Amino acid sequence: MAASLPLPVRLLLSLLAATAAILLAASYYNYQRSMEVKTVLLQNKAAGIAQTIEALARKSPSRTPEDLQSLIASWPEDPHLFDLTVFDRNGVIIAHRDPARLGKEDAASLFLIRQVLAEQQIRFRYLKGQPPAAFSTGAASGLPELSNPAQPIPPRFEAFLPLHLGGFDGEGPRMAGDYQPRFKVLQVQLLESAAGDVSRAALWQLFLIGLVLLGTLTVTAYLAQTLRRYFALEARAREQARMASLGQVATWVAHEVRNPLGAIKGLLQLVQETIEERDPDGQSQRYCETAVRESERLERFVGDLLAYSRLPHPAVAEWPLDHLVQEITALLEPELRRQDAAIVTQIEPPGLIVRADRDQMHRLLLNLIQNALAAMPSGGDIHLRALSSPTEEGLSIILEDEGIGLPPGEEHRLFEPFFTTREKGSGLGLALCRDIVSRHGGTIRAEDAPGGGARFIVNLPEKGEP
Fold this sequence. Notes:
- The protein is of the alpha+beta class and 466 residues long.
- Helix content is 47%, strand content 17%.
- The strands form 3 sheets. It has a 5-stranded antiparallel sheet with strand order 2-1-5-4-3. Strands 7-9-10-12-11 form a 5-stranded mixed sheet.
- α1 (7-58) runs antiparallel to α4 (198-274), α4 (198-274) runs antiparallel to α5 (283-309) and α8 packs antiparallel against α9 (429-439).
- The protein is rod-shaped, with a radius of gyration of 44 Å.
- It is a multi-pass membrane protein.
């Protein structure tokens, strides 16, 4: 069973996790800021190209579409410039560095073009890796063709800017409600490298911080697992030391109390037989019977104490559960009749084979059923269900009674040694049940049954097969 870590260790690990989260958040924020700066730089560069084109175009004396095409086609080579296109309001290319594309339409960009014309504001987008759908259509689109279709496309920044050009119409008569034909839209495609390595440095920082945090979290998880194992071993050592001390006490009690108690009980039985004829009203005999019963109760307590302190390691074997239940039912038959109680058994599947220590399981079920009988002084049914599940819970044994239920507010103490709410209880029965289940690697818990009474649920990790 895994032990929980002490509060200081949990606080330290939480602090490490919080620090890691803060560093990661700060790095991500830094990356986001760098992307904003990068966008501003690319926008400024695109706007500078647009202003230069406007200035040069206005110097054209004739201001014909051919002059605009000549200006774009002869634009100086720039290692960061991917493409340069001028559209009219219908998305038709009216100037391009490749004359073969003149008159083509770019339907994919028409929405942005109309937005730019309507708002007279720059619009932009980042194109990562894959080309837009229109890109593959080659000459049918306004986008440049690749010499090699398998060639990777570098990440690009694409800006659409309004061009205020007097003349250069070539668009036919202006219709009512049309955009002002003197406005064109310039599409500037820049390689992201045009903004320098401002975002690359932040991205690398984010990547390195992520690696460092991943390593830190891995080491922290390993440290937490190691500490948990260490504290589990320490708790087990303390438990073994406690059980060893308890065993010494039990041995002393067995020697100093049990043996004289047996002699006292035997002598009382002899006295009881002797005075039967001399005590007509039976008062002395009743005294002796009470003394014998109390002696037997003390004897059972010593037996439970010895069993609890000397519980051996389980000797696991395979055996049918229904046989054990029948054996316990037969053993308790007199007590069941006296209390007008019955055990209702349901085992699924029938003939279920259990892998466990049979003697310890016998004591476990016997203690639980006797505990249920003690909670039902007016009689009733004890429902015992055993279910074999394919899940990790394995075998589940559920025992419900129709008694008074769990003691309110004391549920968490039910399995503590020497805790009892009954006047004549030893407080060791349920503690012994917990130790038996724990030594088998299982769990046991108690809860109130839906219809009243108490319910005990035992889960054993290994299930049997019929």
